[in-house]
Design a protein that fits this description.
This protein is an alpha/beta fold and about 600 residues long. About 20% of the residues lie in helices and about 25% in strands. The protein has 13 helices and 26 strands. The protein has helices at about 20-35, 55-65, 70-80, 130, 160-170, 185-200, 215-225, 320-335, 360-375, 445, 450-455, 475-485, 565-570, and strands at about 5-15, 40-45, 85-95, 100-110, 115-120, 140-145, 150-155, 175-180, 200-205, 240, 245-250, 255-260, 310-315, 340, 380-390, 390-400, 400-410, 430, 435-440, 460-465, 490-495, 500-505, 525-530, 535-540, 550, 555. The strands form five sheets. The protein has a six-stranded mixed beta sheet with strand order 5-4-3-2-1-12. Helix 6 (about 185-200) links the parallel strand 8 (about 175-180) and strand 9 (about 200-205). The protein is globular. About 55% of the residues are buried. The model is unreliable at about 575-590 (pLDDT under 50).
């Protein structure tokens, strides 16, 4: 597709109930509205044919659509009438005889000729959907269209990273998301982050109105202790650019169709602001645990703390002045009870960049290390920073006796290309402290969603992230909160110009205690922005063990690992070597530098 070509796309939101004819009318009405606004594509919400609420599997089967029936047939006809693409999501019955039919939650894309261009069954079912619906048995296709390569997904598939990542890696430039959600953080976090981390366009359509049967919503509302309106579709259907910018957004309530003119071809460019190609530097062999069956992480010998203090330190100046100020702030943080202290990447260099090409002076790194060790004297705190070592750029975790973990950078990055070669480390490492399991990541590793997934699979409950000076706005606003949310991990991130502590909330998910009922968010962390100097905030290591976002839906072990082959497929020829790595989860390297 011509990168400069502009097309108009639309996202539609409306209410769906148990009346099939009324639901169809809403679909056709919004298709017409999108066509009237000149859209060549419209995306409709999830479960357009019926409320996602069934008394039993027999009812789910009776209300499911079948190809070309009196529900899908008119949708296809409207696509042809207006010469546009229509993405709809329904429950679909297929295969087998009576008693053996599959019922899937399926995204369907009809083309401008009315023919079915592609379909994708939902891979990650949410809560009660597991009771009566069947998950996908194969990944959804990337569909060649006149708009460009398109991928289909729905709702919960966007709350975890694997589905969108796989579609983007297989070449999709435009992702179409249908939702059936009353969670406010879908629009605020989970939708736009998938666009930014994969550098693709996303058109997402959510519902409005009650998502539960009208005759039961009062009782459910009373039992949960939440107002009935909190159980309605959260709306805010949106169109998102590859940098995470929402270019069109529908209101929180009410039927609506929003449109935007987009250039799908721009999603072919996967370069970060510093020139790094975010896809070319991936290390598929390293990610094998993500596409492997869930397995217990190595046992934690102690007891994870319910809450500990973490500190983000942002020193002033550069060179020796920054080292002196950093040591002072570290001493203060330890004195105020911080269990974990995090410094920006190469904190004594402006923006974390070494001056000029060539190998760094490692004697300088040793001097920095001595200063930091001295600042920890007499304390039980752990400190995370990065150092230029003879073997390359590395994240280091140290206590008052010296380094206890050395994590060499896993992914290449343009900023350190002159002196640091990444990729020799065999795996992501962790270290067990008395209060929890910790990993340390340099900035170029933290931007890859797979890295934090590996940390979760290794049983880390807290990750220290040392950010450089070239982080993009979406990484702070969307990327880091999402990494904490989707992996149930506390993040302590220190950067030269920004930073934050993203702590796991005590209550999360859809169904909570009566004392802490659903507040409109699925899994957003509690974030504390870090200013200059010293910022203290709490993290909650024990909460990392709670991963059920809804009944039967585990954010980590419930990932679609069987269908995640695209994440671990070797790079295409010409994309650079992929260094093979052992499939293991070691706990730590030696502390010597």
């Amino acid at each position: 597709m011509d990168e400069a070509r502009t097309v108009r796309v639309a996202a539609a939101q409306f209410a769906v109930g148990r009346d099939r004819k009324a639901n169809l009318a809403a679909c056709l009405r919004t298709i017409e509205a999108a066509a009237e606004q000149g859209a060549i594509l419209v995306v409709l919400p999830e479960f357009c044919n019926h409320l996602s609420w069934y008394d039993d599997r027999e009812q789910a089967l009776a209300t499911a659509c079948r190809p070309g029936d009196d529900f899908l047939g008119p949708v296809a006809e409207h696509a042809a009438r207006h010469g546009m693409y229509v993405k709809i999501h329904v429950t679909l019955a297929s295969g087998g005889g009576p008693g053996a039919e599959r019922i899937t939650a399926t995204s369907l894309l009809y083309g401008p000729d009315g023919a079915l261009a592609g379909a994708a069954d939902k891979q990650v079912l949410m809560g009660s959907e597991n009771d009566h619906l069947d998950p996908a048995t194969e990944p959804g296709p990337v569909i060649d269209t006149a708009l460009g390569p398109v991928g289909l997904y729905s709702c919960m598939e966007g709350v975890v990273p694997e589905v969108c990542r796989g579609l983007a890696l297989r070449g999709a430039h435009l992702l179409l998301n249908s939702l059936n959600s009353f969670a406010l953080d879908e629009a605020a976090l989970h939708i736009p982050v998938r666009a930014a981390e994969n550098r693709v366009w996303i058109v997402a359509a959510n519902k409005v109105g009650p998502l539960l049967p009208a005759d039961r919503i009062g009782a459910i509302s009373a039992a949960m202790g939440v107002p009935a309106e909190a159980l309605e579709g959260a709306g805010e259907s949106q169109i998102v650019a590859p940098d995470g910018t929402v270019v069109a957004r529908a209101p929180r309530r009410g039927e609506a169709v929003v449109v935007a003119d987009i250039r799908v071809g721009t999603a072919a460019d996967k370069r970060r602001a510093d020139g790094t190609d975010a896809f070319a530097v991936r290390r598929p062999a390293l990610y094998r645990p993500i596409a492997s069956p869930p397995a217990p992480a190595p046992a934690f010998a102690g007891t994870r703390a319910e809450e500990v203090a973490a500190a983000v330190v942002r020193p002033r100046g550069s060179g020796p002045a920054a080292v002196e100020d950093g040591a002072r702030l570290v001493r203060e943080a330890a004195g105020r009870g911080a269990a974990l202290i995090v410094l920006p990447e190469l904190f004594w260099y402006p923006g974390g960049l070494l001056p000029g090409p060539g190998r760094p002076d490692t004697s300088e790194a040793q001097a920095v290390l001595r200063a930091l060790r001295g600042a920890l004297a007499g304390s039980t705190a752990y400190l995370a920073c990065t150092l230029p070592l003879p073997t390359g750029h590395a994240g280091v975790l140290l206590d008052r006796d010296g380094p206890v973990l050395t994590q060499h950078q896993l992914h290449e990055g343009a900023r350190h290309r002159d002196w640091a070669r990444a990729g020799e480390a065999p795996a992501l490492l962790t270290h067990d402290t008395p209060w929890g399991r910790v990993a340390v990541l340099p900035a170029d590793d933290a931007v890859q969603p797979e890295t934090l997934r590996l940390a979760a699979l290794a049983g880390a409950d807290t990750v220290a992230i040392c950010l450089g000076g070239a982080t993009e706005p979406w990484e702070h606003a969307l990327g880091l909160p999402e990494r904490a949310a989707e992996n149930r991990i506390n993040l302590v991130a220190a950067g030269h110009g920004a930073g934050a502590v993203h702590a796991l909330p005590v209550e999360f998910g859809l169904w909570r205690s009566r004392d802490a009922p659903f507040d409109g968010t699925i899994s957003t962390p509690t974030s504390t922005a870090a200013g200059p100097g010293l910022t203290l905030a709490s993290v909650r290591p024990r909460q990392a063990g709670r991963r059920l976002v809804s009944r039967g839906t585990d954010l980590v072990d419930g990932r679609p690992w069987r269908l995640a082959g695209a994440l671990v497929a070797p790079r295409p020829a010409g994309a650079g070597p992929d260094r093979a790595t052992p499939h293991s989860r070691p706990q730590a390297t030696g502390g010597a530098l």
